[in-house]
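Researcher: I'd like a candidate sequence for this fold, 428 residues long. If you have to choose between options at a position, lean toward the conservative one.
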């Protein structure tokens, strides 16, 4: 019943949804040249042959699924890959992938979750295999996809404790959504157990794809230029921060600078378009990466307001606070920082990556803070080199401890896809 009501409401709200999308275009949160894709329209014809469709919500999910996409295409070299995402930043990243890999990779923005738009999208692309990543559960899109004969999988599935509590009140709805998938591949034991607890049994646990990701790349020329400009100044990084976290970061800097007058605080906001709001009231000297500004001796804050440069920012500092954790968001992924020998600091909200943080703590690879204790912790890491080195080694040991999920997922999915395609061909 909730899904029927949801579909009815989305139908009734069609004019409002269209208006909202154009409002987002006006606020530069959508690409006006490609706005039709949000309504299921595409100017790109469907290629002949096999189409493998992957849907990743945003930048992090896109990065995590990319190694699997590359390996999967080696199994199906004749296939075209359709990769849908929902954000401008992820679209920019996929555009880079397209330049590097050729015309077998197609990017589209995810259509609005309205029955008419999702049907139009599915009717056009007619995918042969479908992979939704982590926790992307759009009811109308899933229903439209399930009406095809395609193999469907939820890959690297993640279900936080908070989401589990919410779905417990809608068990039947959750079971219906999960029934659209031929198989669900959980990224950890916690997720598998939570999904099982909600009455869904077709779940495999093959490991977290994010643990197989290579260290983020960077422009080494730019890195050397920045390192030379910064010199031996004490610094720390606030990575992937959200609204209402930067004020804590700024306050921490203003306290620490009394002991470390040359302190440089690097802030990389989750959404770079928020940078103007973040720095509007700052009286300190600010340099912005997006304006090709290099921090000098008077720079207090360096804003990493560019897309795809986290590998650069993590290499500029060995101390990284991971954002989304001082607010009730669930935290951002700490794996990228761990792979680049960073000491990881996080707030109390880590439900998005519970198992990862638990394992990190077991390796003594991270420190938990509150809004009030952040300053004290950063100060201790800046002043105590032995303590800092211990946590840096712990994070590195953690990042080297577990791998192989991509290989296991690839082997499992290749068998399932071939079986599904063979069955479909026999039925034609």
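Model: Candidate sequence:
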């Amino acid at each position: 019943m909730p899904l029927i009501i949801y579909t009815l409401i989305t139908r009734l709200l069609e004019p409002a949804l269209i208006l909202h999308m154009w409002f987002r275009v006006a606020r530069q949160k959508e690409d006006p040249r490609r706005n039709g894709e949000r309504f299921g329209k595409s100017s790109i014809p469907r290629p002949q042959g096999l189409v493998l469709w992957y849907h990743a919500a945003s930048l992090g999910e896109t990065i995590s699924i990319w190694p699997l996409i590359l390996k999967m295409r080696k199994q199906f070299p004749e296939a075209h890959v359709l990769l849908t995402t929902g954000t401008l930043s992820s679209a920019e990243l996929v555009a880079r992938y397209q330049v590097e890999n050729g015309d077998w990779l197609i990017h589209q923005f995810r259509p609005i979750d309205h029955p008419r738009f999702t049907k139009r999208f599915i009717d056009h692309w007619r995918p042969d295999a479908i992979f939704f990543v982590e926790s992307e559960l759009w009811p109308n899109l899933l229903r439209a996809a399930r009406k095809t004969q395609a193999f469907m999988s939820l890959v690297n599935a993640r279900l936080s404790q908070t989401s589990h509590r919410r779905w417990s009140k809608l068990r039947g709805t959750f079971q219906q959504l999960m029934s659209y998938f031929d198989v669900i591949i959980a990224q950890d034991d916690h997720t598998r157990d939570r999904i099982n607890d909600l009455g869904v049994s077709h779940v495999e646990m093959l490991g977290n794809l994010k643990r197989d990701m290579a260290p983020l790349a960077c422009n080494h020329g730019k890195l050397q230029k920045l390192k030379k400009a910064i010199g031996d100044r004490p610094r720390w990084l606030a990575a992937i921060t959200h609204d209402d976290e930067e004020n804590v970061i700024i306050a921490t800097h203003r306290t620490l600078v009394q002991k470390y007058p040359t302190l440089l605080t690097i802030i990389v906001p989750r959404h770079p378009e928020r940078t103007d709001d973040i720095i509007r009231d700052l009286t300190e000297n600010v340099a912005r990466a997006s304006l090709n500004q290099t921090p000098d001796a008077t720079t207090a804050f360096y804003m990493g307001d560019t897309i795809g440069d986290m590998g650069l920012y993590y290499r500029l500092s060995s101390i990284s606070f991971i954002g989304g954790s001082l607010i009730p968001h669930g935290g951002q992924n700490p794996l990228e920082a761990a792979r680049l020998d960073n000491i990881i600091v996080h707030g109390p909200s880590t439900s998005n990556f519970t198992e990862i943080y638990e394992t990190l703590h077991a390796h003594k690879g991270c420190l938990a803070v509150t809004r009030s204790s952040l300053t004290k912790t950063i100060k201790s890491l800046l002043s105590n080199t032995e303590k800092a080195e211990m946590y840096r080694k712990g994070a590195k040991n953690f990042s080297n401890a577990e791998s192989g999920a991509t290989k296991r997922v690839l082997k499992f999915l290749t068998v399932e896809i071939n079986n599904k395609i063979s069955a479909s061909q026999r039925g034609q």
